Amino acid sequence: xxxxxxxxxxxxxxxxxRIKTKMQRYIDEQKLAGIxxxxxxxxxxxxxxxxxMADIEASTPMAADTIFRIYSMTKPITSVAVLMLLEESCxxxxxxxxxxxxxxxxxxxxxxxxxSGTRLVDPVRPMTIRDLLTHTAGLSYGFEENFxxxxxxxxxxxxxxxxxxxxxxAEWIGAVAQLPLxxxxxxxxxxxxxxxxxxxxxxxxxGMPFADFLQQRIFEPLGMVDTFFTxxxxxxxxxxxxxxxxxxxxxxxxxxxxxxxxxxxxxxASGGGGLLSTTADYLRFAQMLLNKGTLDGVRLLGRKxxxxxxxxxxxxxxxxxxxxxxGQGLGLxxxxxxxxxxxxxxxxxxNYGWSGAANTNFWIDPQEELIGILMLQCMPDRVYxxxxxxxxxxxxxxxx
Length: 400
What we know:
- By secondary structure, the chain is an alpha+beta fold.
- It folds into two domains: about 5-80 and about 210-395, 3-Layer(aba) Sandwich (Beta-lactamase); about 95-205, Methane Monooxygenase Hydroxylase, Chain G, domain 1 (Up-down Bundle), CATH 1.20.58.
- The protein contains eleven helices and 16 strands.
């Protein structure tokens, strides 16, 4: 990691110091256990600090090499794997998913629910690989309590995971393929299992386990030595515990490091949310994207592919999270900032990135050659505006 004086790349040290002050306040108020923040510009790190604890019960401070559950920050990595195979002409974005995963050949669309039951219809057109990359395929996630289809996801997709730790990725995606689509492919945005399906697509097309593909084709070439689906026993002491708000104030353990499912081997490598990583490792991945597909002489993607990945692909009038006020669209696996005013955030048009369920977050600003990474372990997400605070404090320190 290349550290330099902030002023060398247009940051004010005094202003950057506000980040630690604000992050420490979250710790002192017992809202969060520990936080790691990083800012890099033009390939150089100007800010990398940790506050609080990675594991309160074990008295383990948050450290530069703490390992985090990055959950949905796995999605951009999976999307890069898909785009690498695209560049090898293994498929086209417009190809039907069923051409490579026949289990989706007979999928139906949920048309309506009435007193007589559910009505299923044929898709107007097949779901495509591009639909999966943009969450417009019609899949769901199982998180919406009042949606009929999500009850099916809970029963048929999530419950088997709880009862059968040996469930394979093929079996898991097979369960998804048995359920109807929430809408006609390509017509709406719905956050979903799409990226997990893409992980299975990589496995099938590449002819090797998805986890092995990521290790051999992305992590090893980029030098991401602490990114994996299971924390190795010799690195378990660096694994952070996940906390959440406790009734009456303070923090409670949500997922203890030593007993976490992430500390046990899995046969279900989740491309949508299964990876663990460190702040430093994720910087290497983000820097590769900012460099248009290359890092330290290693090229994973061509620059035109990264350009395609990081422009908006959602249909006209559709926004990320179906919220036009967000000012954000969706590229191929990353959010894309389209409107600064609507987004009500400091940054640049064209910023892209993603977040994770435990409040991890990263963004890349190509105009400013800037990367921001926030790592912590708090669930549920968005209880506190820590991501907004960090981004604001990063940009207010930029003076050139």
